[in-house]
Write a structure and sequence with these properties.
Number of helices: 17
Structural class: mainly alpha
Order of helices and strands: HHHHHHHHHHHHHHHHH
Strand content: under 5%
Shape: globular
Distance between the termini: 50 Å
Number of strands: 0
């Protein structure tokens, strides 16, 4: 059976406000400042007795250096406990637990087939999506499609709501496998994410998210909405995917990881996502207004890599304040 192969490969735990356009060079963070930021993270993570998760999250809201992102995400998502006294034994406990989950994967060949098909499709879809099938730790090799099958199959079996497989789950898993060295770590990060996001894989939950977004879009960007209608670009062709994937299917890797740093670390968490999507639209608005239907659809599926994500996040907060002040929802 397919699951036998999947289990065998898993049990070791290790996996083989700028304008639209170029970002100006004087914005780029000086190396000295980047080194200082990395050192602040290392000081928090290397404390011998306790990791101050509150301080760690405060730092992470403004972005996490690639070198420590895996460890930081695990702490701020609650995968790892802040006490260091039993760190090694607790990590081994998680690995053993994950191995147990793998050994009891329920054979669903249809889910396996659909997951593998989607992984293979994404690998060839574009350069930006293919990026997620490599590793931040280059020594660990490429992400294997069976890892996606295991993580998604286990999550479906342990879901808190009655949800079914959807191809967008592959896009959610890809960044987590990309960042984490151990497959089990990627799973527990996925589980923590789905605790907050699972409702969007139910019909009612997704409909509420889409309706809220479109209500605000019509109120804030009526000219853009009118242009979409005149060009016959249907909301269902892009809005549900934006909501479900947390833009993992649309943003280039560096922008997506930077955005998720804020989602995982901030008090607003995923509640900010609708406003981030609105901020992306406002950033692209002038370009999209000059485009016709097919080009609009393509632009909405593959967002510009030239966006300045810190500015998008700031704009999202401003939009949220405006929406609350005007009582638009």
């Amino acid at each position: 059976m397919l699951s036998t192969l999947l289990r065998r490969n898993a049990l070791s735990g290790l996996v083989p406000e700028f304008p639209a356009g170029e970002i100006e060079e004087d914005w780029l963070e000086p190396q000295s400042a980047a080194d200082e930021r990395l050192e602040r993270f290392r000081e928090l993570l290397d404390n011998e007795t306790y990791v101050n998760v509150h301080k760690l999250a405060k730092e992470a809201r403004n972005g996490v250096p690639e070198e420590v992102r895996s460890e930081v995400w695990k702490y701020i998502l609650g995968v790892l406990r802040p006490e260091k006294s039993d760190e090694i034994s607790y990590q081994q406990k998680l690995q053993n637990e994950y191995n147990e989950f793998v050994s009891h994967i329920y054979d669903d060949d249809e889910v396996v087939r659909r997951v593998v098909h989607e992984v293979r499709r994404l690998k060839t879809l574009s350069a930006s999506t293919a990026e997620f099938f490599s590793r931040e730790d280059k020594s660990q090799g490429k992400v294997d499609e069976n890892m996606f099958v295991r993580l998604i199959s286990i999550q479906l079996g342990r879901a808190r709501m009655e949800i079914e497989y959807h191809p967008t789950m592959v896009r959610l898993v890809a960044p987590l496998l990309h960042v984490n060295r151990a497959e089990s770590d990627a799973y527990y990060c996925f589980d923590a994410l789905m605790k907050k996001h699972e409702a969007l894989f139910t019909r009612d939950g997704l409909n509420r998210a889409v309706t809220s977004f479109l209500t605000l879009l019509r109120a804030l960007e009526p000219e853009f909405v009118s242009h979409l209608e005149s060009e016959e670009v249907e909301p269902n062709s892009w809005v549900p995917a934006w909501m479900q994937t947390l833009l993992a299917g649309q943003l280039a890797r560096p922008l997506l990881l930077r955005l998720w740093d804020t989602y995982f670390a901030s008090s607003e968490g995923l509640d900010l996502h609708t406003y981030v999507c609105l901020a992306v639209v406002t950033w692209m608005r002038d370009e999209l207004l000059d485009q016709e239907g097919p080009d609009i659809s393509e632009s909405l599926q593959s967002l510009p890599s030239t966006m300045f994500m810190d500015q998008i996040i700031t704009r999202a907060h401003n939009i949220r304040e405006d929406v609350v002040g005007r009582r638009l929802l």
